[in-house]
Every structure is written in structure tokens, then in C-alpha cells.
Amino acid sequence: MTSKPIDYVAYGVRDGQxxxxxxxxxxxxxxxxxxxxxxxxxxxxSVNGRIVLREPKYQEETTES
Length: 65
What we know:
There is one protein chain. The chain is mainly beta. The chain has one domain. It is 0% helix and 51% strand. The chain has strands at residues 4-5, 8-15, 21-31, 38-42, 50-54, 63-64. The strands form two sheets. It has a four-stranded antiparallel sheet, with no helix packed on it. It has a two-stranded antiparallel ribbon with strand order 1-6. It is elongated and about 40 Å long. The protein starts with a strand and ends with a strand. The model has no long low-confidence stretch (mean pLDDT 84).
């Protein structure tokens, strides 16, 4: 399988006490070739909290096999 660039990293976010949130990487989003949408691939599902998509910060997070 060829590597695709990750457009966004998906995180499961659970709000904690005193404005502390626990962020866990749960997957990634890949843009469609036509630019009109994204595929979201999840390795885990957040059942308590929300899923947040963020641009990758580091080069090693920008490709998936």
C-alpha cells in the first residue's frame, strides 16, 4: 500500500477536572482526490467525549502505510 499524506490527526478528547483535558490519538483524516471530502480512519472510538481533528505537527505524523 502506498503512503498517503495525513491531512488531519484525529484525537479523542475527554474533559477532565479543572480545565484539564485528556487527548488520545485515535486515527487520521485523508483528503479525497477531488478535494470535496475526507475519509476518517479510526483505530479506536471515543465513547466518552468528542473527536477533534487537528493538522499534524510533526513530519513523522504526516504519512500512513
